Amino acid sequence: MPIRWNVPRQATAAERLDAALADTAAAAGAVVLGPDGIGKSTLARVAAERFAAAHPGTRVRWVTGTPTERAVPFGAFSHLVRIAEIGKPAALLRAARASLGDAGLLLVVDDAHQLDVLSATLVYQLARAGAARLIVTARADGAPDAIAALWDDGLLTRIDVEAPDAPTSPGEIDAFLAELTPPARAVLEYLAVAEPLSVTDLNALAGDGAVAEAQRWGAAETRMRGGTSDDPVVYTAHPLFAERVRAALDPDDARQRRTELVTVLARHPSDRLSDRLRLVSLALDSDAPPRAADVVDAARQALRLGDLALGERLARAALRRSGGLAARLALAHALGWQGRGREADALLAEVDSTGLTEAALMDWALLRAANQFWMLSEPERATAFLRTVRNRVADPGPRTTLDALSATFAMNTGNVGHAVKVAGEVLGSPAADDQAVAWAGSAAALCAARGRGGSTTSSRWRGARWPPNIPGCCASPSGWRRPPRCCWRAGSSRPANSRSSSPISPSCSSRVARSARCWWRTCCSPRANSLLRQRYWVQPRPPWSAPVTRGGRCR
Fold first, then answer.
1. Same domain, yes or no, for 139 and 185?
2. How deeply is 374 buried, as exposed, middle or buried, from its count of CB atoms within 10 A (0-12, 13-18, 19+)?
3. Looking at CB atoms within 10 Å, which of 20, 25, 129, 526 has the fewest?
4. Which of 125-129, 252-256, 383-387 bottoms out in mean pLDDT, i.e. has the lowest?
5. pLDDT for res 9
């Protein structure tokens, strides 16, 4: 029989939640905090229904955090935002906000402590901009920094819900799970591996009628999330169900469930990037492994989204399967951006460069030199390495690119005269590609900010077509694990020792940041200014404050 939850009446919390949604002069919504199993989701659902009934033009959208979707960037928002063609994290967040719209949106975010960093960032930005009314439920402990900032920064009304005197015990939950019929239990086991799943897929996996059986027992529930999801989708009726089933599932049985799930999901591949990343992640620990090339591509996409941990996991898996250079480079990127430059250098040192094509040699050499310079703080070694590689390259285009990177090295070590000289030669070379122009232009302009500009405002640089991704041009990885105080929005109440979280993009050194701000004011054309603000100014800040900090000042 269905489990009986010991849920207290929350009349006061419901009244406060209704008031927070209705008060246009206050924060646009509320955060409902409390432990699992006390009725937070029910409070949110009832409040959303009441508000939508009183305001017919309201668009209600649901986002639910789960442990499996937390492993993928924008996992919980995959049905609401499209991210396949967007580049850097700041641009991703702007596009995600735009795709949600702002006309009468009521966004319910359930179990927000289970959101990935980008999803949590998006919730924070929606609250900061007042782009939607929000009902957020979460546990106060273990929430991402961006979610904790919702109440720390006073953006949403905080409503604490007390636990009952006699909460439902884990033993009662285990006893209930032991009584489930095999079809209902199978539904929970698949959801423990990947949650949510569509009704169609779950019935194909667990048998016709399995979802209805799980609902009859109160073990699972279907939800209409809105957006572009395969509604209805199935969630466990309570997060503790998936947690307890996952803990009890034998590793071999879990692997079999993943294999069966990957087989079914692969029959109708999704065009949503989050779904593709989730499928590849599931397949790695199954008996239906993906192609190594697909894993490398997924690793690159994860790194592009700023999920360094996922990028490392995928790249390592691809390297074990193929041993190829592409997987090795992706893994080195992931390690370097996490401040693990020694590991990245050792990984790159294993490459036998004598058999590489010129294009592959350049990919390997540029990454290794940048890692030696910025992550290992070995400028002499990095500069000498660039010279050695340059002597092996015959094509003038790649040689110019190597020169451009050496100019940035010279600028960063204070050798301004040499940096200006080399940068000028690169900018004047017809063989220079976009990347070389970007590196040389940045080096020359930063030197100009120090009073040694020369002809850095030449039309060659000012009119350059900036490539969409310029490694090292506007961000030098320094391996910071925690944003400095100056990264927070001006006037923020966030303390300097706030909890750390993995950065979603490489941080920049304060020395370069100070120079770059002067450079923008003195040297950049409006177009270059706009482009480089997207690539540089945004990235040193915590991701959730990026688009709303224009005018903020680093001290």
1. no
2. buried
3. 25
4. 125-129
5. 64
